[in-house]
Design goal:
This protein has 403 residues and is an all-alpha fold. It has one domain: Up-down Bundle (Growth Hormone, Chain: A). The chain has 16 helices and no strands. It is globular.
Length: 403
């Protein structure tokens, strides 16, 4: 992809932004559980972010399609930087020593709420901007490279965050994250202005939003691919409970939790490197179902494990399955969606992702409180297998999908 220098700059900015965001997410999850010693705090953390992310997703798609995507992305990154500075202040030793636990907890939820607002715009913009940087024939490879950049950041961010927290402090971790966000914002500012691709700039907001929803609903391959991923991650999100597993079951410190949180990313990066050289050629729909089922089985195995390295390997294997399904889903979105609708469809995709990740985190926290941590993850893995079985029977277009 040497003929696309803008793509290289974009991928660098995305890598650094996701790297910093993963550091922030890991640090806050660990800090909050140590502060409250309550498994439900992890659920409230996810809910704080998912409410604005889902509520604004459809409107964000309309705005993205009618806006210069570089400027939209830059604004979102700068606002996330401000929220990260706020989190750094709230988690500092001075604030925690002079404030009640409840006040610090509420401030964290409030700031995470605002990061959900900003991510409602940045996430879909990251997805929709790729098609403006490369030719259509090179889109599958560009999507794979973008996913690889994301996953590399998802691997390194938690590991570095956990190590810094264990060896220094969460404040030092935030200093590094803030510096990375500054560099990512600078790289994004160097991208050129990209033309607006919306086919009807005078279209009313709700009509524009409905167009995006109608397109997803009518394009069964897109709808089914989004749905199976959403429900699988919603029920199979053991990663949401990692601070609890790390501290109470596997008995490791923040460094160990960082390694566990990065395990899925390591597996995904390994498979993405392979797929960049050897793309999938046939039966992608069936393979998607197999991989989501494998992901569910890994969640059950993780719940039953009491040994750190077994848990690490199982999470790594789940990342392999997840990486294949991510490439298939992302390629379907890029190939099936017209240019003028990428922002709106990417926002629908973002709504599915956010509802599965952050809402799944809330579901995991509630179920862990009601059933216990281990039974709740086993239940989630079983529900993932049920989702795959239903999709196999009820979504034949996705099962037979090939591209």
């Amino acid at each position: 992809m040497n003929q696309y220098p803008l793509l290289r700059a974009f991928l660098s900015a995305r890598f650094l932004f996701i790297f910093a965001m993963q550091m922030v997410n890991t640090g806050i999850a660990w800090f909050l559980y140590e502060l409250t010693n309550d498994v439900l705090s992890q659920g409230w953390l996810g809910l704080s972010e998912v409410i604005p992310a889902i509520s604004l997703a459809l409107y964000a798609g309309h705005v993205i399609d009618k806006s210069n995507k570089r400027n939209m992305l830059l604004r979102g990154m700068l606002l996330y930087l401000c929220a990260s500075i706020g989190l750094a202040v709230v988690t500092s030793q001075w604030v925690t020593a002079n404030s009640s636990v409840r006040l610090v907890e509420m401030c964290i939820y409030l700031l995470i709420f605002f990061t959900g607002v900003f991510r409602a715009f940045t996430g879909p913009t990251f997805h929709s901007i790729i098609a403006q940087l490369v030719d259509k024939n090179d889109l599958p490879k560009a999507v794979t490279l973008s996913s690889t950049a994301w996953q590399l950041a998802a691997v390194l961010g938690p590991v570095i965050a956990g190590f810094i927290i264990a060896q220094a402090s969460i404040s030092v971790m935030f200093i590094l994250a803030i510096l990375l966000l500054c560099v990512a914002s600078f790289l994004t500012s160097r991208l050129p202005h990209l033309p607006v691709q919306h086919s009807n700039l005078q279209q009313r907001t709700w009509e524009s939003v409905k167009d995006g929803l109608r397109y997803v609903w009518r394009t069964k391959e897109v709808l089914s691919a989004l749905s199976i991923d959403m429900f699988a991650v919603l029920f199979g999100g053991a990663v949401a409970m990692l601070p609890v597993f790390a501290k109470d079951i596997l008995h490791v410190d923040a460094t160990g939790m960082g390694f566990l949180k990065s395990a899925q990313g390591i597996g995904t990066v390994l498979v993405l490197f392979i797929m960049a050289r050897k793309p999938l050629r046939s039966q992608q729909g069936k393979l998607l179902h197999y991989c989501v089922a494998g992901f569910g089985l890994c969640m059950i195995a993780f719940a039953l494990s009491t040994h750190f390295w077994i848990s690490f390997f199982v999470l790594l294997l789940s990342g392999v399955f997840d990486g294949i399904s991510v490439v298939i889903r992302s390629t379907v979105l890029q190939l099936f969606v017209p240019d003028g609708m990428r922002g709106r469809v990417s926002s629908v995709n973002s709504m599915f992702i956010n509802s599965s990740n952050e809402l799944g985190q809330f579901e995991s926290g509630v179920m862990a409180k009601l059933m216990g941590t281990v039974p709740s993850v086993i239940f989630g893995g079983c529900m993932t297998l049920l989702v795959v079985a239903i999709s196999w029977i009820k979504a034949p277009k996705l099962r037979k999908l090939e591209y």
